[in-house]
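Quarterly update from the structural biology core.
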Amino acid sequence: MENNKLMGILSYIGILVLIPIFAAKDDPFVRYHANQGLVNFIVALVAGVLTAIPIVGIVAGLVGIVCFVFAIIGIINVINGKMQPLPLIGGIEILK
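Predicted structure, tokenized:
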């Protein structure tokens, strides 16, 4: 179970989401959190790119902060052994 938690935590640390996607693809708990982390990472990445645009950048910066908070929420869910969706983006499923 500890290995699952470590993989779940890695799911919420930016590009490190690729480790659980490929290393623990058969574990439903890790796969769930890898999906949540991947969606969060993609949203944060897009927000990061959009910060270069003057007016849109302010909103994108706020989205980036929200993504950071979502990552913390996801890590707390992993530590507590929960498979709870993240607010707003939790319903998006990229990994099947």
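The mean pLDDT is 94.
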